[in-house]
Write a structure and sequence with these properties.
Number of helices: 9
Number of domains: 2
Number of strands: 20
Shape: globular
Structural class: alpha+beta
Largest sheet: 8 strands, antiparallel
CATH architecture of the largest domain: 3-Layer(aba) Sandwich
Strand order of the largest sheet: 2-1-12-11-10-9-8-7
Strand content: 15-25%
CATH class of the largest domain: Alpha Beta
Helix content: 10-25%
CATH superfamily of the largest domain: DD-peptidase/beta-lactamase superfamily
Radius of gyration: 26 Å
Distance between the termini: 66 Å
């Protein structure tokens, strides 16, 4: 990284620490599978003479914990241990949440109540799953109706993970995710150098320590502590470097928007996939999660197309603002990815399929872009990219044609007759009668 870029990012972080009156804040940028920049400003106790924060200081990640639980659930699915359409009741019987599916719990559209029925769970010790279920936590809305963020729902998913493995949910996370990724400073309680959770008075520069405890059955919703260095490894994972922990296709599936976070009067830019928040900002897709617990704030966001990402944590109950996306934006603007030079590397066989095609009277152009066949303009109408599935066969990757088959049909002599796309027929001329158009072509032709 250019020293001027690093200086700019550090200055931005310091300015945000002062603006937000954050006792301390730490951040990191990841690119190409590594921590490209990191810094920390402030002290762990918020006082001028306190211990300085650094990238090995632990903070609570809050709801970023949910992404670890979600990955553990998808690992069970990939192993054939469950189906995402299974009812929760099939794996964890005895609660009033049993009618919701696992997928609905992961994407926060199960309608499950947001918080517990007891005291504010984030500031008071929690009991076990049996006591949480016995407290009559319920579904506020019909499952599948709408987005309704639910901490209780992830408490339930943590119990599902625990029962499937016959072990504590965190023991599963540590064994299957943290240790393989080298995240050895991620724990359920503070260990080693850690920030004190603090509230800053809104009208005076004084501090109030926030409580820290074991949340019990609610721990899977926001219990974990971590460092910038550890969380950066999770951002690398989120950017697509999943190693042996998770199949890349499964991570991509988790990023598919399931339910929109609808705020009346505002454009739709945020949705939820399977345990991950996803953003669509001016056409760029991001994935990650925010986090907060009394005394702590956190954020993780990655560009799903490049893997560039940012992680930020602070020991304050409020005041961090949009530090994470603004840091990532500043980095990308000053350190654009190198442009790979173009080289001719195509196959002349594709000339049979590229060029102008007609679906009825409409005109569509097929071309090869990189490894994909592109029909029309993706994002416009039914334009889509297609991946090779065999000789003269492709499968759709975008929009209306996602998962649908495209086939180049040849005549007995090997010449091209037409394209068949999910039963739609594309011909080289409008309604070419020699292409066996379904329904036939008027014998008198165009007139």
């Amino acid at each position: 990284m250019d020293p001027l870029t690093a200086r700019h990012l550090s200055h931005f972080l310091a300015a945000e620490q002062r603006r937000g009156r954050l006792p301390s804040v730490a951040a990191g940028i990841v690119r190409d599978g590594a921590l490209a920049w990191s810094d920390a400003i402030g002290t762990v106790d918020g006082r001028a003479d306190g211990g300085r924060s650094d990238t090995d200081t632990q903070y609570r990640m809050g709801s970023i914990t949910k992404t670890f639980v979600a990955v553990a659930v998808l690992r069970l699915r990939d192993a054939g241990r469950l189906d995402l359409n299974d009812r929760f009741e099939a794996h964890v019987p005895g609660s009033r949440l049993g009618g919701a599916t696992i997928a609905q719990l992961l994407s926060h559209d199960a309608g499950v109540q947001a918080e517990t029925n007891g005291p504010w769970w984030e500031r008071t010790p929690g009991g076990d799953w049996e006591s949480l279920a016995a407290s009559q936590v319920v579904q506020r809305f019909r499952a599948g109706r709408r987005f309704h963020y639910s901490n209780v729902g992830f408490g339930a998913l943590g119990e599902l993970v625990a029962r499937a493995h016959g072990a504590d949910w965190f023991d599963v996370i540590r064994r299957d995710l943290l240790e393989p990724l080298g995240m050895l400073r991620t724990t359920t309680r503070p260990s080693g150098k850690a920030g004190q959770g603090l509230a800053v008075h809104p009208f005076a520069d004084v501090l109030l320590p926030e409580p820290e405890h074991d949340a019990g059955a609610m721990a899977p919703a926001g219990q974990l502590w971590t460092t910038i260095e550890d969380l950066a490894r999770w951002a690398v994972f989120a950017g697509g470097d999943t190693g042996d922990v998770l199949a890349k296709d499964t991570l991509a599936e988790m990023y598919e928007p399931h339910v929109v976070n609808d705020n009346p009067g505002l454009p739709w830019t945020v949705a939820h996939g399977l345990g991950w928040q996803v953003w669509n900002i001016d056409g760029t897709r991001y994935a990650g999660h925010g986090g907060s617990m009394p005394g702590f704030l956190a954020g993780l966001r990655v560009d799903t197309s490049t893997g560039d990402g940012v992680v930020v944590m602070a020991n304050a109950t409020s005041g961090m603002g949009l530090v994470a996306p603004e840091l990532l934006k500043a980095f990308v603007e000053r350190e654009p990815r190198p442009v790979e030079p173009w080289h001719a590397q195509g196959d002349a066989d594709v000339l049979d399929v590229v060029g102008m095609w007609h679906w009825g009277p409409s005109v569509t152009v097929a071309k090869v872009v990189g490894e994909h066949l592109v029909l029309g303009e993706p994002g416009q109408g039914r334009g889509s990219r297609f991946a090779v599935a065999g000789r003269d066969e492709w499968v759709g990757l975008d929009g209306y044609y996602t998962g649908e088959p495209l086939r180049l049909v040849r005549r007995p002599d090997g010449t091209v007759s037409h394209l068949d796309l999910a039963s739609f027929r594309f011909t080289r001329t409008p309604y070419d009668p020699s292409a066996d158009i379904p329904g036939g072509v008027d014998e008198a032709g165009w007139r």
